[in-house]
Amino acid sequence: MYDVKKGYELAKEYYAQYGIDVDKMIEICDKTPISMHCWQGDDVLGFEKKEGGLTGGIQTTGNYPGKATTPAELRADIEKAMSYIPGELKVNVHANYCEADGFVDRNEITPENFKNWADWAVEKGIGLDFNPTYFSHPKSEKATLSSSDEDIRKFWVEHGIRCRQIGEYFYKRTGKVCVINHWTPDGDKEFPIDTLTPRLQLKKSYDEIFEATKDVEGVMDGIESKVFGIGAESFTAGSHEFCMGYVMSKNSDHIIMTLDTGHYHPTEVVSAKLGAVYAFSKNVLLHVSRPIRWDSDHVVAFDDETKSIMEELVRLGKLEDTYIATDFFDASINRIAAWVIGLRNTRKAMLYALLQPTEEMKKIEASGDVSGRLAYMQEFKAAPFSLVWDYYCDKTNKGVGLSWLDEVRSYEKDVLLKR
Ligand code: RNT
Ligand code: ZN
Q1: DSSP 307
Q2: What single-letter DSSP state applies at residue 308?
Q3: Ligand 1 atom nearest to 226, measured from its CA
């Protein structure tokens, strides 16, 4: 391996020319939490003892061997992946990852069903986030919270209520705020005649969930919109306008927007939305993913959009106010590698964005020097950023470069393929 320390010293000198304090930026990056989604480990299947696969207009494609089939396997895999991901992490659990002796339906889940997750998180000293699962269930086939069938709607409202109580339980156990993401796939294959009634039902359902749990503490609630799902191509009840309207109309300190990078038309980007949302909101929940032509949930790449999102958060001064969570599911590659690659890229984009003279650039812009602004914005794209990244990974013992890859290959051979 090359001399990582030497590279870091040189990079430090390079960045010092622009007044950038590399160590300070590493520190900011390191303490900014990223919520790692549990569902990459088993293709979003979960542990409910029930038949049936993934529904809700989302899909995992591929049949790579070795997925986790028990909670213990999943947690072991998460730990393995985490050992190669620098910086503060939380783990994001979905309601269908409940644990019970027999089948417990979604309207019956309690904190007890998530005690093992909480015990594990406390032992690891990490925070937990949570998600109601409004899909992969016989009662979600047509609609959930937007349903005009009152029994179905109430069933899902009860699920939402219980999820907020579980969120509070996570908060109380870990001492860290639990961020809950509410996403419902409700939609239609064809364009409906009545596009208002389902929205009013959805609004009513969210209102009922929040009213019934108004005393719950330590929970933030993201409302996630979407443009379309598989089999629901023409209409989505929880569209962007609906969710934004809902969040803004509540003017609440815990109900916030979730922006998933795969949930917009292909030329629309989340990075361009953040400044507008932050004109009205104190917090945002991000689902960092990678859409390819559709909401395909590919593993997060170190690509322009991921970098732009992080640059925007740094420039807006909103890194701290943004709950950053990953959301992707690839069943065609080693699932541990998927986590490591996607989470490292998310963290890497954050560090990349921090290693720019943001304050200086703001001054240049304010002075009206548009040529200087462009020159600065371009210059740092080729800065010796990777030398700092390698140093950061080394310092935090998360493995420099591709050193993690051979270890993940051994884990595949020794553990995953024996399942
Ligand atoms: C689906 C949403 C949602 C899910 C998870 C599994 O399009 O992005 O966040 O991916 O709930
Ligand atoms: Zn999402």
Answers
A1: H
A2: H
A3: 7
* Residues carrying an active site annotation: 183, 224, 226, 260, 263, 287, 295, 297, 327
List, as ranges, residues with CB under 5 A of the ion ligand 2. Answer: 260, 287, 327
What per-residue confidence (pLDDT) applies to 341?
99
- Please tell me the distance from the alpha carbon of residue 152 to that of residue 328, in angstroms, as a whole number: 28
Cα 58 to averaged position of ligand 2 atoms, centre (Å): 10
Q: Which residue out of 145, 221, 260 has the highest number of ligand 1 atoms within 8 Å of its CB and is therefore the one to mutate?
A: 260
CB 286 within 8 A of CB 350: no
Say what angle helices 71-82 and 335-354 make with each other, to 10 degrees. 40
Give the pLDDT confidence score for residue 49 in this predicted structure.
84
CA–CA–CA angle 176, 182, 187 (5° rounding): 170
Please tell me the distance from the alpha carbon of residue 226 to that of residue 314, in angstroms, as a whole number.
25
CA 234 to chain CA centroid, Å, is 25
Residue 209 confidence (pLDDT): 99
Residue-level pLDDT at 339: 99
From residue 75, alpha-carbon distances to 33, 189, 385, 413 in Å are 19, 37, 32, 18
Bridge partner list, 179: 220
The DSSP 8-state label assigned to residue 125 in this structure reads T
pLDDT at 50: 84
From ligand 2's centre to the CA of 285, what distance in Å? 10
- Give CB contacts under 8 A, 24+ apart, made by 67-71: 67/41, 67/42, 67/43, 67/331, 67/335, 67/419, 68/41, 68/42, 68/335, 68/419, 69/42, 69/419, 71/47, 71/97, 71/99, 71/116, 71/117
Which pLDDT score, from 0 to 100, does residue 51 have? 83
Between the CA of 225 and the centroid of ligand 1 the distance, in Å, is 10
Q: Whose CA is nearest to atom 5 of ligand 1?
A: 327
The predicted pLDDT at position 62 comes to 96
Q: Which residues of the chain have pLDDT under 70?
A: none
Separation of CA 43 and ligand 2 centre (Å)? 14
User: What residue ranges line ligand 1, CB within 6 angstroms?
Assistant: 39, 44, 58, 131, 181, 183, 224, 226, 260, 287, 295, 327
Query: Which residues lie closer than 8 Å to 21 by C-beta, 6 or more apart?
Result: 15
Three-state DSSP state, 258 = strand
**Number of Cβ atoms within 10 Å of the Cβ of 65:** 10
